[in-house]
Specification:
It contains 5 helices and 19 strands. The chain has helices at about 60-70, 135-140, 200-205, 230-240, 255-260; strands at about 10, 20-25, 30, 35-40, 45-50, 75-85, 90-95, 100-105, 110-115, 120-125, 130-135, 150-155, 155-165, 165-170, 175-180, 185-190, 190-195, 210-215, 220-225. The protein has a 6-stranded antiparallel beta sheet. The protein has a 6-stranded antiparallel beta sheet with strand order 11-12-9-16-19-14. The radius of gyration is 21 Å and the shape is globular. It starts with 7 loop residues before the first strand and ends in a 5-residue tail after the last helix.
Length: about 260
């Protein structure tokens, strides 16, 4: 039996998705700032401090929870959408960039899922949105995007957003997967997370994939994204730089820029 609010939902779209949450009277969904799209009459919005979970005890507990959210780059505040009417009502939230919205039923996933720090979109009231530090020293020093992650705890529905295409993998006990840290969307609590250095000097210096892999070891489920937002932002910035598009269609490419004097 769930202790969190039990909500119904529908996901619309293919690459630019939104999720419609259907609320019974007095049901509430908690959403990240900036994800709201539209809602039916009868739903009221309330900005609250922290994540609004039932686990937060008193002002000090809410203050600590909100402070942890700052470490993941999120706002101190979240928005609660509550159906104050007498009939079912709907509220819709949209992803921030092209990709997929993933529903995660925490009751079916052991009560806890660890996800990328900018992937959380919304959840049923009662789901706790906290912070998950990777405990190993190497992971902390070299983990990049995977060092500070969010943890979703409870027994309700939570929704996270991923860039590009999403792949779900089930790892057996002892089975490992080496991944670019930015491509991790989420994984269940039974997964062991570590960092491994890329083998070979040429691979490390010229491979273009960074110096370290994330290593996930089962048992548990892992969700991966094909287009991390950091990778997308990096490509956009490279094209926005002066002369960034000159090498397209050029035989010399970047070398042509150097010969023209742009490389100095």
């Amino acid at each position: 039996m769930r202790s969190n609010h039990e909500i119904d939902y529908r996901i619309f779209g293919e690459e630019m998705q939104c999720v419609e949450i259907e609320l019974d009277p007095q049901e509430t969904v908690m959403a990240e700032s900036g994800s709201f799209m539209f809602m039916d009459d009868g739903i009221e919005m309330e900005t609250i401090f922290g994540d609004g979970s039932q686990q937060s005890g008193g002002f000090l507990g809410k203050l600590m929870g909100a402070g942890k959210r700052l470490l993941t780059g999120e706002s101190l505040f979240m928005t609660a959408f509550t159906n104050m009417g007498y009939n079912k009502a709907r509220v819709t939230f949209a992803g921030p960039y092209a990709g997929k919205i993933m529903p995660l039923d925490l009751l079916q996933l052991g009560g806890k899922v660890i996800c990328q720090k900018d992937s959380y979109l919304c959840a049923a009231k009662g789901v706790s949105v906290g912070i998950e530090f990777q405990r190993k020293l190497g992971t902390g020093l070299f983990g990049g995007e995977g060092f500070i992650m969010q943890k979703l705890e409870g027994d309700g529905l939570a929704f996270v957003h991923a860039g590009g295409h999403v792949m779900e993998k089930e790892l057996r006990a002892g089975e490992t997967l080496r991944i670019d840290t930015g491509c991790i969307v989420a994984f269940t609590a039974g997964i062991d997370y570590d960092i491994q250095m890329v083998r070979g000097v040429k691979n490390a210096l010229f491979g273009g994939e960074g110096l370290f892999f994330a290593v996930l070891r089962g048992p548990g489920k892992v969700w991966l994204q094909s287009l991390p937002v950091s990778r997308l932002a990096g490509k956009i910035l490279s094209y926005a730089a002066p002369g960034g598009r000159r090498e397209e269609g050029s035989i010399l490419g970047g070398l042509g820029n150097i010969l023209d004097g742009d490389g100095f």
